[in-house]
Amino acid sequence: xxxxxxxxxxxxxxxxxxxxIKYVIIHYTGMQSTRVxxxxxxxxxxxxxxxxxxxxxxxxxxxxxxxxxxxxAGKSKWFGFNNLNKNSIGIELQNKGHNLNYQNFTLKQLAxxxxxxxxxxxxxxxxxxxFLGHSDIAPLRKKDPGEKFPWKKLSKKxxxxxxxxxxxxxxxxxxxxxxxxxxxFTNLKKIGYRYFTxxxxxxxxxxxxxxxxxxxxxxxxxxxxTLKTFKISSFLAKKP
Length: 240
Hints:
Blueprint: E1 3-5, E2 23-28, H1 34-41, E3 52-54, E4 60-62, E5 77-78, E6 81-82, E7 88-93, H2 107-124, E8 131-133, H3 134-137, H4 151-155, H5 165-168, H6 177-191, H7 202-216, H8 227-238
């Protein structure tokens, strides 16, 4: 696979240990074009970067060496990790995003992504479940890569978690609606999601629910914990 180097100075000067790299975080650029995205990701004043940018034609551009820390995750949490830049590799997919004109990801783009993910998984021994979206680790402020990103397809190649309808059979619902919400958020904690507590506001909880559904129920992105939503969370929470 051909990778084009167009290095950004928006990265750490120090080299990190390979053992520190635990996650791959997938983003969309949220900008009009690859040219605009590259300009921002290489602009010192933006203080933003990623290790890779993949354009709509599947071209892979290396912006930061993977042994260095890129500035892509921002304020973020997953399990016991805070501010995941130091523990992750960031991949940006060119897409206008929700605020401009959210697009489907192209087949060439996804093919390029999977080749990179395969390479990174092998090199850094990254677990399948540790391929995450930006909205997973920062659900209160991010939507990317969004509900059009095909997590189900990637999971079949070993990148990210998913489920089947068969997996959900036999999972019992809590007796009361309030118990469903409590159990759902307990499940999310076990899966890795953060930024909520039992006393969090309805707005905060709603954003976390939407982030979960954007990932695992992309055809039904809202703040409702349906029976299926609960069952998906229960299944994923039990996975090792």
